[in-house]
Design a protein that fits this description.
This protein folds into 2 domains: 133 residues, Enolase-like, domain 1, CATH 3.30.390.10; 221 residues, Alpha-Beta Barrel (TIM Barrel). Helix 1 packs across helix 3 and helix 9 runs parallel beside helix 10. The longest helix has 18 residues. It contains 12 helices and 17 strands. The protein is of the alpha/beta class. The strands form 5 sheets. It has a 7-stranded parallel sheet with strand order 7-8-9-10-11-12-13, covered by helices on one side. It has a 4-stranded antiparallel sheet with strand order 4-3-2-17, sandwiched between helices. It is 31% helix and 23% strand.
């Protein structure tokens, strides 16, 4: 069923994290996020812009995303007649970069189309390979190793199927060794967030002894080529994250043997349409994928759940319970995990949860309506 966007509401919200989250970029204590609401015929679809507060993960941050959405992406979508949400990405494709801004808008349009069709979002995007999502957790750099070990123990006891820890120079080999000594059998991976160069090759080879599932994005955020000799030197699979922004780049990386695994983040690749293409390219080459996280609130988390039902999402992703990050989420009920470390996928229309509108009003710091 075709649809025409009649109104786009942008909301900037501020949410404090339950506990700080540290990567090689620094610490985050609160999230400033942009929510996108698209409306047609009295029905709303919702998206979440997943960029950070600073341009450290990539070139985007919340202030830039606000301007891109308000001044460039939204005007290209407003009033246009779409036969399918799959056509939305093409309307903003001329914008160079800024995938997370455009992706939040595109995801909202998929949610709108699903609600118009009274279908769950996972079905609308062509998912449904599984009705329970295997879940992992991402644990940031801590003040001490004992503090890190305690956090891992808590997450393992909660049933999470995979533990990811952030690493950086000075917080890597010795830390992983302590984790393996304490937890010899858990599924463990390390995420470097581009903290190393090829000069660190021999040092990174020391991680092979800890039988990790993968090392995520060890080299620069825009680097594919240098990952080729690094992957050749490592027994541990490299997972690419930041440098894969399109299906074309995924195809290049796979053909060059720069990685053995790809992390798909909905915002990083610009929304569901491109995410599905990356998924399909990886699947065609026998490369498994998993869903990465960006400290999303409930809308983004629900979208990640839908995406994770696509068939090649065979590894536990960073899709975890709301309570790990928020005292109160913007959706009801909050996302919860089972004792087996999974999230049950529902059949409700759209992204599958109700909005906590009272709380959303409390945490909104800026709002604009575009007609």
């Amino acid at each position: 069923m075709s649809f025409q966007i009649e109104n786009i509401a942008l909301r900037r919200i501020r949410m404090p994290l339950v506990h700080f989250f540290e990567t090689s970029f620094g610490r985050t204590y609160e999230r400033i996020m942009i929510l996108v609401e698209v409306q047609c015929g009295g029905i709303s679809g919702w998206g979440e812009v997943t960029c950070g507060e600073n341009p450290f993960y990539n070139e985007e941050w919340s202030d830039s995303a606000w301007l891109i959405l308000r001044d460039f992406a939204a005007p290209r979508v407003l009033g246009f007649q779409f036969d399918s949400a799959a056509e939305v990405a093409a309307r903003t494709a001329h914008i160079r970069g800024h995938n997370m801004a455009s992706g939040g808008l595109e995801a909202a349009c998929w949610d709108l189309e699903a609600r118009i069709n009274n279908a769950p979002l996972w079905k609308q995007i062509g998912g449904g390979a599984r009705k329970e999502i295997p879940c992992g957790v991402s644990i940031g750099i801590q003040d001490t190793v004992p503090q890190l070990l305690k956090k891992i123990e808590t997450e393992v006891n909660d049933g999470y199927q995979r533990i990811k820890v952030k690493i950086k120079p000075g917080w890597d080999v010795d830390v992983i060794r302590e984790i393996r000594r304490e937890f010899p059998a858990i599924k463990l991976m390390a995420d470097a967030n581009s903290a190393y160069t090829l000069r660190d090759l021999e040092h990174l080879m020391r991680l092979d002894e800890f039988y990790l599932m993968m090392i995520e994005q060890p080299l620069a955020h825009d680097e594919i080529i240098d990952h080729v000799p690094l992957q050749a030197a490592l027994q541990t699979p490299i997972c690419l994250d930041e440098c894969i922004r399109s299906a074309h780049q995924a195809e290049q990386a796979i053909r060059m043997k720069a990685c053995g695994i790809i992390n798909i983040k909905l915002g990083r690749v610009g929304g569901f349409t491109e995410a599905k293409k990356v998924h399909d390219v990886a699947q065609a080459h026998g490369i498994p994928v998993w869903c990465g996280g960006m400290l999303e609130a409930g809308i983004g988390r629900a979208h990640n759940i839908a995406m994770s039902t696509l068939p090649n999402f065979v590894l536990p992703g960073d899709v975890s319970a709301s309570k790990r990050y928020w005292k109160r989420d913007i959706i009801r009920p909050a996302v919860e995990t089972t004792p087996n470390g999974t999230i049950v996928v529902g059949d409700e229309p759209g992204f599958g949860y109700e909005l906590d509108r009272e709380f959303l009003k409390q945490i909104t710091v800026e709002e604009v309506n575009l007609r």
